[in-house]
Amino acid sequence: MKKLHLATVVILLVTFTCHGQSVIELEPSQSMSISGKGPGQDAAINPYLATNSIGIIENIGKNQFSIRVQEKNKIIKTIQIKPDDTKEIILLKGYELYFDSELKAKVKVDFKKMKE
């Protein structure tokens, strides 16, 4: 029974990790690469980085923050996210996603593959 329970926990963890969901805490005046730079440089791993995808950004903190979508150091768009707001951001192949916050912020990030 313990082996079955352990196997279930491992499967759930692998499923959760592969799905790409992360909770990130930003300190005041912090900018962070969320996805698009690569392993070891991203705060959240986008499992669909090699194709077009959608970033699902949920502000689970008490303060507003902004998201920057960039491609090759060129800002494509900047979006403000208020507390309790959720935004779906289209991330074309090659796009990088950054968070900027003047105040402490807490963010839930998830990714899904964009249907083509």
Notes on the protein architecture:
It contains one helix and eight strands. It has 116 residues and is of the alpha+beta class. The protein has one helix at residues 2-19; strands spanning 22-26, 30-35, 53-59, 65-71, 74-81, 86-91, 96-101, 105-113. The chain is 16% helix and 47% strand. 24% of the residues are buried. Mean pLDDT is 78; it is low at 1-19. Strands 1-8-3-6 form a four-stranded antiparallel sheet, with no helix packed on it. The radius of gyration is 15 Å and the shape is globular.
Summarize the structure.
The protein has one helix and eight strands. The protein has 116 residues and is of the alpha+beta class.
Keywords:
116 residues; alpha+beta; 4-stranded antiparallel β-sheet; 1 helix; 8 strands; 16% helix; globular
Lay out the secondary structure:
Blueprint: H1 2-19, E1 22-26, E2 30-35, E3 53-59, E4 65-71, E5 74-81, E6 86-91, E7 96-101, E8 105-113
Antiparallel strand pairs: 1-8, 2-7, 3-6, 3-8, 4-5, 4-7
